[in-house]
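ESCALATION

Customer reports they have been waiting on this structure for their group meeting. Please prioritize. Original submission:
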Amino acid sequence: MTEYLVAILLGIVEGVTEFLPVSSTGHLILASELMGYDAAQWAVFNIAIQPGAILAIVVLYWRTFLAVFKGLLRWEQASIAFVRNLLIAFIPAVILGLAFGDQIDALLENAVVVAWALIVGGVAILVVERFARTENVLGISGVSTAQSIKIGLVQCLAMVPGVSRSGATIMGAMALGVDRRTAADFSFFLALPTLTGATVLQLYKHRDAITADGMGLIAVGFVVSFVVALAVVKAFLAIVTRHGFAPFAWYRIVAGASALVWLGMR
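Update from on-call: job pushed to the front of the queue and completed.
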């Protein structure tokens, strides 16, 4: 299998899983292992293609971004609160990412950690879905400062591969009383600074090891993840509206258990 074909396949995995509560990083690690490639070899690639999926959010929600931008120019409180809440939620990831970067990098090479995190995360989703008491919040600007801080702290759990950044933020928000749709939107928009920052940091740290071919592979994965994510986000919201997050929880449990069996048989 050529490296460019691998880049395409991993781009598809990234595009499908980035905004689902199933852990895109975990799936990329398992996919690399499944295809017989060293997960550590593709660790930087897996992170660097994430902004491709993030660009899909910019395209799909361009009207929201434009409205917020115009609101900031007019100093409207709703737009100010929108940006403030996302920045507040982003700060914990910056602090912990810089403080524990090496430890996080080491976890990106451990497929067993991914498998167990998938299972535990699936159980956590079922618990939150069953017991969370949510209220209808008027969009991201309606989320309180205290809730934003806590959502940002919960997002940091996703530094463990397999936990799922989107899953942690969505379930964390719902556990704090935020309704399902607003929690999903908060997760989508929070991904922009979080994943862009992680990509810039990884590319900088590993700049000496990135070749022209490496950048070519990243470009292919970026484009593929962008195209796939465009289709997946709307489908995800439709599924969540009708069935909640339980289908993703059961998928995580089955996938994690299957991965443990497969890893144990190698």
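Sent to customer with the following note: The CA atoms of residues 150 and 162 lie 20 Å apart.
Escalation resolved.
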